[in-house]
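Consider the following assembly input.
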Amino acid sequence: MTVTFDDNATAPADPSDSLFLRACRGERTSRPPVWFMRQAGRSLPEYRRLREGVPMLESCTRPDMVTEITLQPVRRYGVDAAIFYSDIVVPLRAVGVDVDVKPGIGPVLGHPIRSRADLDQLRPLEPGDVAFVDEAVRTLVGELGGTPLIGFAGAPFTLASYLVEGGPSKNHEVTKALMHSDPELWHELLSRVAGISSTFLDVQVRAGASAVQLFDSWAGALSAADYAKFVHPHSAEVLDSVIDVPRIHFGVGTSEFLPLMASAGADVVGVDWRLPLDEAALRVPGKPLQGNLDPALLGADWPVVEREVHRIVAEGRRAPAHIFNLGHGVLPTTDPDVLARVVETVQATGDSGSGAG
Ligand code: CP3
């Protein structure tokens, strides 16, 4: 029933005692717990083999595949948390949005949402629309034993950007034009998307996820003022709706408004690689931090990566608690053996007695 991991034999059976959840609660741990955004996925040969011939979004609706893919990095790396294998656009597709994930590109829409008539087509998510998520989370929680499962959703801005642009965007110009030209339509769009993300998280939490992460990957395209006015209330609505589990709020390029990310309702603030964690700790005092190794550096020679890992662990001690992660997701070209060595290196920092107890 319960999987035991050789290199994590001391993992408690109840995730609530895990290093990861203790750090989420702001407890200082003997070493940082470690997991990676996008740890499940294309950098793993076992993932590519399993996914052969199955489109990305279809794989997300098959609980057997979701379970296996979520467990793959836990088995391989002995990370301190699993992240549910799905995608931020899964709940959009579940309410009938014509969206597909194109390999090498990302989410692409058949019909972008740019008018009141388009928006009227976007209905709320019902838990039954994502029954396959409920089933996969329940199975996973049983399989993972003491290893916590992180549920996630896309934040309203990042999802809205895909909906409005119709696909990935460098400048987010259609999104920004809509936001400023028709604030009423903008706020209604974000409020509907916030409802969808809240329900998606709620399904995962009710099924047993131990924590959630809200991904606002593209929020860094905004000024602090626009974030505060056009986005913050909607992300706050999603984070406020989460019952009883810690909430990690992550953005890329959001260092300039980290306190706003925190005040939206984060128990843990995710930090990208641009801002050292000791500096982040000054910007959001009292908050546990997650981050922040530059994923692109994983391709450098090992001594470089090792030095970075030690720097980040040391800087993370300036926060009340630190969860080791990358500053953004694992890149497809990353060598899994390097990630394995990163995990080993982070986990060994607890053996030296150098960490505060
Ligand atoms: O982190 C994990 O391991 C869990 C799974 C996960 C996926 N997507 C699987 C996935 C998570 C948490 C996400 C979130 C997600 N999806 C975000 C937020 C995080 C981030 O990276 O900023 C965003 C912006 C998306 C949208 C999306 N989906 C993009 C940009 C892409 C990559 C497109 C490409 O091919 O370059 C996807 C596809 C996707 N989501 C893959 C995986 C494993 C790759 C699919 C494949 O195998 O081709």
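The beta strands are 82-83, 99-102, 106-109, 149-154, 211-216, 247-251, 268-270, 289-293, 322-326. Ask yourself how this observation constrains the way the partners meet.
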